[in-house]
Amino acid sequence: MKYNCLIIEDEPIAMEIMEHFISQNKEFHVVGKCSDAIYANSLLNTHKIDLIFLDLHLPVLKGFEFLKKIKNPPHVIVTTAFHEYALEGYELNIVDYLLKPISYSRFLDALGKFKHLMNAEKAILEMENRDFIFINIAKRKIKIVLQDIFYVESIREYIKIHTKQEIYTVKIPISKFEESLDRNNFIRIHKSYIVSRSKIEVICANEIVVNGKKLPIGRTYKSFIPDK
Question: Tell me: the pLDDT tens digits for 184-200?
Fold first, then answer.
């Protein structure tokens, strides 16, 4: 399988290095490269992109502002000379954060994380009548009954699925996992939390209690929370 890549980089030398790195890996193919987010948006509309290599300090529209404007963005590996934006990047579910100058070995680590994520997205293997799912954990297929889920917690690029039996950790963005859930039964209450509607014990102004655990309600999600 080939993964289509888009390079968004305003430094010609850095763009050339990134393209060379990608070309050394047969599974990856550069389908577009540009120096600003405006042109990048048009490329996203005309090509199927699996992975973006995103510089942050771009003209007109900065990297993360561009990323926030994309609906259902591809996976993103940040390439930057500035370390201070790493936390914000992981809150946006980026795959990795590469600091320039980027070594080839560090670049390969980032590609490995991306491929792991792509495999994790295939972890949701089966869903029959939306009663259960199978997920891949350590090369095993684990069956999770949806009614057994209390809530789902996001920790950077991982999620923790809290169930009656145990807590399962899977490397997949919470937004991708959310797509597999029936919204009549599950509700997103925060950028880091999805809860089972039937398991809600208490609803307050700023938090929800599920299985005795207090979970915060995000400001942008308050309008989706059922009435007390």
Answer: 899 999 999 999 999 99
